C-alpha cells in the first residue's frame, strides 16, 4: 500500500485530506510544520522513507514556506512525488514557483476525490 505524507498546519485540512486519501487506499502520515517534517524524515531514515510515495505540502506552513520545503525534500528524496496545495486556486505564478522548487504538481485545497485521482494518475500513483 502506498503512503502519503500530508503537511498542513490546519487540523481541518489534514483531516479532510486524510479521509480522501484513505478512501483511495493510501496509508497516511501527517505533519503540521516544517520541524515535524524534518523529525519525520530523521525518525524514519532513508530506507523507511522509500515507502512514502507522495507528499501533499501546504503552501504556507510554520517554520518555512511549502515551496522551500519541497526543495529541501527533493534534494534528499528526489523519488518522492510532491504536490504543493493552496487555497489560492489556479495561481499561474504559484504553479511556476512550485515547479521551479521541484514540485511534481499543484493542487487546489478545494480537494475532492476526483481531483486527487486525476493528479495522482498523471504521476503514475494509480
Description of the structure:
This protein is an alpha/beta fold. The chain is built from 5 helices and 5 strands, in the order βαβαβαβαβα. A 5-stranded parallel sheet has the order 2-1-3-4-5, sandwiched between helices. The radius of gyration is 13 Å and the shape is globular. The mean pLDDT is 85.
Order of helices and strands: EHEHEHEHEH
Strand content: 15-25%
State the CATH architecture.
Answer: 3-Layer(aba) Sandwich
**Low-confidence residue ranges:** none
Q: Please tell me the overall pLDDT.
A: 85
Number of helices: 5
Counting helices, strands and paired strands, the structural category is alpha/beta
Gyration radius from CA atoms, angstroms: 13 Å
Question: Can you tell me the CATH topology?
Answer: Rossmann fold
Search tags:
126 residues, alpha/beta, Rossmann fold, 5-stranded parallel sheet, 5 helices, globular
